[in-house]
């Protein structure tokens, strides 16, 4: 299958740190591709490099088009939805304003889908996003990515700091979203990865050390322990 | 009692002037992280544009002010586009360029119009007075206060009711995330420079009415107080700037009258220190 997103020889240097050291992998046009690795391996930086949020060298191709040199807003407008690790919520804006801000172009914008997945966002539309719980803020972050007709979602640690019940809800949403749009997911929660990921990419110290089917990695305790330090 | 009324309205008038300058400064810093020391130039262009169109083109007061505001806005857009835009995220260079531009602007105005203050064309109504609670209050105070209220309401409507306003409010919180939503935040930068330039140019024209003259260095001296207002109000908060401007104007007027000349300015600096000790982020903004 032709990959939708291809990264090649990505390097990111911040100060004296060489964080990404030639990262390259391909993301298929369907399903969930999970980026795994220990803390500080370069997973979040990889997503930021794809979006041009951090300065980088190397190649990023979306559906064959080179987008690596474009500014962030232009890359996103090519059809990439981004839910960052810290959720990127605008605390002083209301929930509705947070969603409205994410509208791109003339639409149609898929409020029906967002409110169907997260009815709470409709009920809390006038509430300031900064007063929401962590789980509700995550709903806003994911809801914003679903509002537009994106070609791929980049989701960074969506379950970080959430209660187990909320983690299950987030997993349900991602699983459902993945039926419509491919997801590049950075995640430390292996249970979630087992449940929803089709493919995995393992990054260690800024380089890709493993790519393949999620099931084959996660069903091999020795390999999982070797690559991720956990089983 | 009449002294208190006169001082209060004069303080509010001065505060209105500070607010008109500070509102743009605050928005520009809040969104674009630019400490714009050239903001006084927009004010001076507005003042001289008003003076020039009135004395050379024979414009009545309101069209002359409109001419000055358009000139100030155009200057702000040009400065942002040509000089600031290549320097976003390069703070030191920005400071050097805007300070240099401020100094060069004063020198250019001196070369073009002379160093001496020029008598400013004031509408007849503004030169009169109105008696309120026994105080004889110059009418120009009401003009300043009215203009500031209109600008405050207009900026709030822009920020609360328009998509660009939404982008500006979000950008003040987290500019990177705004771009990660597919929004070209640079367009919003230009827009806040235009709004800030327009408000500063209006302040320049109204400062001419208030002081009765216009001089090349007027923008620079008013800018210092506007920066204090921005810091007290909180970087990026227009409402905070409005409250801070009223506080600064009133404190300056009352202490100058009841203490001694010069104490007014010192008391403003003391107010700044007290506010920063109590609320390091200012009255309403993010941490400075």
From TrEMBL, chain A:
Protein name: ABC transporter ATP-binding protein
Domain (ABC transporter): residue spans on this chain: 5-230
UniProt-listed Pfam families: ABC_tran (PF00005)
PROSITE patterns: ABC_TRANSPORTER_1 (PS00211), ABC_TRANSPORTER_2 (PS50893)
Similarity field: Belongs to the ABC transporter superfamily.
Transport in keyword set: yes
Source species, domain of life: Bacteria
Organism expressing this protein natively: Microtetraspora fusca
CDD domains documented for this protein: ABC_TM1139_LivF_branched
TrEMBL record, chain B:
InterPro entries (UniProt xref): ABC_transp_permease, BCAA_transport_permease
Main location: membrane
Transmembrane segments: 6-27, 34-52, 64-83, 95-115, 142-159, 187-211, 223-250, 257-278
Places the protein is found: Cell membrane
Keywords: Amino-acid transport, Cell membrane, Membrane, Transmembrane, Transmembrane helix, Transport
Topology within the bilayer: Multi-pass membrane protein
Superkingdom, natural source: Bacteria
Pfam families: BPD_transp_2
PANTHER family, per database record: ABC TRANSPORTER ATP-BINDING PROTEIN, BRANCHED-CHAIN AMINO ACID TRANSPORT SYSTEM PERMEASE PROTEIN LIVH
Family in the record: Belongs to the binding-protein-dependent transport system permease family. LivHM subfamily.
Protein name (Swiss-Prot/TrEMBL): Branched-chain amino acid ABC transporter permease
